[in-house]
Amino acid sequence: MAPIPERDAIGLIHAPMGRDAQIAVALLEEAGLPGKTAPTLDALVAGLNENVAFAVMTEEALRSVDLRPFVSWIETQPSWSDLPFIILTARGGGPERNPAAARLSEVLGNVSFVERPFHPTTFISVARSAMRARRRQYEASARMEALDEGERRLQTALDAGRLGAWELDIATNVLTTSATCRGIFGRGPDDSFTYEDLLQSIHPEDVERMQEAVRKTLETGVDYAIAYRTVWPDGSIHGAEIRAQLHRDRTGHPIKLVGVSADITERLQAEEQQRRLHEMLEERVAERTRELQEAHRLVLAEVSQRERAEEQLRQAQKMEAIGQLTGGVAHDFNNLLMAVLGNLELLRKHVVGDAKATRLIDGALQGAQRGASLTQRLLAFARRQDLQVGPVNLAGLVTEMEDLLKRSVGSRIAIEVAVPERLPPVSADANQVELALLNLAVNARDAMPDGGTIRIELKEAEQPAVEDTLAPGRYVVLSVIDEGQGMDAETLQKAVEPFFSTKALGKGTGLGLSMVHGLALQLDGRLKLQSAPGQGTTAELWIPVSTADVQDQAQDVAPAGPRDDAGPKRILLVDDDVLIAMSSADMLSDLGHQVVEAHSGKEALALIDGGATFDLLITDYSMPGMTGAELVKAARDRVPGLPILLASGYADLPSGVELDVARLAKPYSQDQLASAIDKML
């Protein structure tokens, strides 16, 4: 319920005897507080609506009358409401000396007494205090409604992502779970599920690992994140992924774990199937190798070459399969994060002034943004992140990052940079290359716990012939060299695999090198690693030389002129996911635009064919029935000049799809959405 506006707030006056009512109304209006009289007590009760800020009554008007309707209204007020009453008493008739007046305090609750004859200043002061108190009640009601709405939206997001919520009291081990959470462990919505039940439902081989993760979270405060197998009451094996954060009291003492759970049975089954396929492939390769060795005993050079080729093929097939699985999961998670981030960002605007609500929302935003960062790394490994490829001055990029790199690695690590005077521009995404360099520098720092030197070098190189996936041509090589512990051959072979890490649990995601590897392949380059135990590591990022000139391209950009199309726009928003559509529509409406939603390409075209006009079309790419690409072509046939923005969690469109439209990667913030619209219009 919104606070009562200043112009609508009134004081309701019941003083049927003498001129008290007229005097009270005149004084209130002179002070800018509108007043209204109620000739009878029934009229007073009937007039107690949302605009009434306080009520003024004379003590004698309440004598010898039936107060039951009045008392009933007072007792049935909402929990947040406590309407202020001002009682005008006779001289010497205050509650201290007047038992009848004192009893009115018990009946009415929120009462102020003013003895007559009263000074106008005293009466107005009491009235203003009552008005302020009433407004604070309405503001409290509005904040409670906003918080309730935020909880409902958060629950919607959890339901959409099929995430179960849970909470564990550290002191008592009392576990509180949602119905979805209990379902992930094979329980019904109404079944009891205690912490002891949880421990018994975990696969015996995974219990110790789970308890160790809980212990580490309680000791260090690191986020609790683990995946393990579960055994349902029917004996079937399933999978659960659990994530949580530790809450502490004001003294810093841990009090509870609060988190979510997800069913990953299908993922575990897919991983098991992939493992079996790998084993089968390895057996076949081993069998073929033995046959080759037997047939060509006098030739272990030809056999060695064949072994290398088969190993590279096997590794490529394995990485491609993992990449496809990773990219699909990241895309779906991006959509879920889109709804969570959008709703939280808008919700934060409605709790301004409420420090606790703002802190809780900020915490949720940080968690969701960390999830978004993780999906971007997954997409980078799968070679599906959105790249803005153009000519990049790599020497300038490294030089400008030197201060950032020094701050990132700490005072115990020295940074040396060797950059030639002249280097050709490379074809790359500057932001992604900066992130790759930062990842390589942080990895080098972690390999030198006792300190050391990181050397960053740039050089131009020529690739004369095809080597693995690296095509012939000119390249600029970015090298990051450390003096750290180094890696043996087995570790080096797995270094770019996703989630593989030699760091302690909780110290890294295992996605740094895989992200750099995916970026290099997406840029038609290569990440090369050289390392040996005790001899440090050299990471080389080979990036193709650009055929365009950095400076020439910058000159083609015309300065921005004054805009003549400012103001709200009429936007057609198309997304088959209702939750995402609702979140995006709310963000657009909050920016002042008029939004029309459609949940399929067919529905969008029906609106256009029906005569509706729009300033901008925003559409998702992956939709059933009609893809975003098909909708773009159909819409352009109908309205050739219509600006179109394509939003998607995938970066690369299928082969053969060429679209001249603006692109926006999911998940996006309201600021990113506004910036994209501004650039287009």
TrEMBL record:
Modified residue annotations for 4-aspartylphosphate: 620
Domain of life: Bacteria
Record keyword Transferase present: yes
Pfam families to which the protein is assigned, alphabetical: HATPase_c, HisKA, PAS_3, Response_reg
Gene Ontology molecular function, alphabetical: phosphorelay sensor kinase activity
PAS domain mapped to chain residues: 150-221
Protein name: histidine kinase
Organism listed in the record: Pseudorhizobium banfieldiae
